[in-house]
Design goal:
Layout (H helix, E strand, L loop, with lengths): L1 H38 L6 E2 L2 H5 L9 E9 L5 E5 L3 E4 L5 E9 L5 E10 L7 E6 L5 E3 L4 E10 L9 E10 L1 H6 L1
Parallel strand pairs: 1-7, 2-10
Antiparallel strand pairs: 2-4, 3-5, 5-9, 6-8, 6-10, 7-9
């Protein structure tokens, strides 16, 4: 009789295990986002409003080089470039740089830019007050436009960080929009 009870417990335990793993899979994305926010991993940048920036102390003696890079998802037939390749900035001051994008197709395309900051430690101190990456961008066929990014570097950025790279990758968000 003991063997018969074990026969029923094994499939039950396996079923519970499968359901638990399925639930864990759904929880991974929000857990990963929280982990990245806490650790600064994956180069996700912060967003601040002007009231927070006003409390930063401008540091005229420290200079940081910010490099700008762009890339496109292979399915997106656009032109996408930064206005400047790099600039020198001072922590605590808001700067604005433009990025130019142009839809090279004969159809309307909705794009979404995903930012990344390197080195990872800098992402905790690099914040944007305005960015085209906050929302999806609809470009008509052949349309081009300049899109601003306003950013500030927290003066508490570790002293060993002298160069920060802000990178954007544009994706075709059209299918994503249609599914929502």
């Amino acid at each position: 009789m003991a063997a018969r009870g074990a026969t029923y417990r094994t499939p039950f335990k396996l079923g519970v295990f499968v359901i638990a793993m399925f639930g864990f899979g759904f929880a991974l994305v929000p857990l990963y986002n929280v982990f990245c926010e806490i650790t600064g991993l994956n180069g996700k940048t912060g967003v601040v409003d002007e009231s927070v920036v006003a409390r930063y102390e401008f540091d005229p003696d420290r200079e940081i080089v910010v490099e700008f890079m762009t890339s496109l998802n292979q399915e997106l037939n656009w032109e996408f470039l930064p206005e400047v390749a790099k600039m020198k900035v001072h922590p605590g001051k808001v700067y604005t740089v433009n990025f130019h994008a142009r839809n090279l197709t004969d159809r309307d395309v909705t794009g979404q830019a995903i930012p990344s900051v390197a080195p990872n430690v800098a992402s905790r101190y690099f914040s944007k007050t305005e960015c085209f990456c906050f929302t999806q961008q609809l470009f008509q066929a052949g349309e081009g436009r300049d899109m601003p990014v306003s950013f500030v570097i927290n003066p508490k950025l570790p002293a060993h960080v002298t160069t920060i790279t802000l990178s954007y990758t544009f994706f075709d968000a059209g299918q994503k929009v249609a599914l929502q």
